[in-house]
Amino acid sequence: MTAVLPAGSLDGKVALVTGSSRGIGADTVRYLAEAGADVVINFRNKAPRAEKLAGELRELGRRALVVGADLTDPESVAAMFDAVTNEYGRLDVLVLNASGGMESGMAEDYALTLNRDAQLNVLRAAEPLLGEGARVIFVTSHQAHFIRTTPTMPEYEPVALSKRAGEDALRELIPGLAEKGIGFTVVSGDMIEGTITATLLERANPGAIAERRESAGKLYNVSEFAAEVAQAAVDPVPADNTRLVGDVSAFVAE
């Protein structure tokens, strides 16, 4: 047991993490399960990994539902939440972790479709299941969160802009969520060692990650950052709805 969250702090709760077959999403869903939550593991095309993780979490005595869904396809998203409704009938924690846009061979507007439109659609589809005391967490990067005041690497800029557009669109829903007693937190981290994005950036811009590590003093790895995301599910919602993870001295706040 990693005991990132207090034991039993999520007993009786149900948590869904998008893109949770690997990386930050997989570690986040594991931490939530270890704290007592029954979970929904969502994947796009890594079914074997998702099933393996579900098996490990069931050994902890948790229920784990595995649902494949393409978040950019509203019908696929609707089917996912039908499955959640049938299995659990509720949702207490929704972590909007899945994102992308650096993949090759995708349509020009793919980053915006996934990082803005799909995030909104997932939250709207989840809302009927979210009750008072529920939490929604949007996972982003400092490079995206601060993109309007601090330039980023050109290779990452389209993704950063699309993720900031997603964050802005989601933030507009905060008053309506708050009325229902649903907390919303943006968790923003620096470049995370070992993520797909970091790997793709390194390929496009060799040395970029080492350079960022040197200027920040430290970069979080996947499990460390996932622990911060999981923590946001139980900590009080910050006044500005923002949890900044790691060094932000290189970024200019708006």
TrEMBL record:
Pfam families linked to this entry: adh_short
Top-level taxon of origin: Bacteria
Look up keyword Nucleotide-binding and say if it applies. Answer: no
Q: Which InterPro entries match?
A: NAD(P)-bd_dom_sf, SDR_fam
Q: Report if keyword Oxidoreductase is assigned.
A: yes
Q: Which UniProt keywords apply?
A: Oxidoreductase
PANTHER family from the entry? 5-KETO-D-GLUCONATE 5-REDUCTASE, ALCOHOL DEHYDROGENASE, PUTATIVE (AFU_ORTHOLOGUE AFUA_3G03445)-RELATED
User: What family does the entry list?
Assistant: Belongs to the short-chain dehydrogenases/reductases (SDR) family.
| Record's protein name | SDR family oxidoreductase
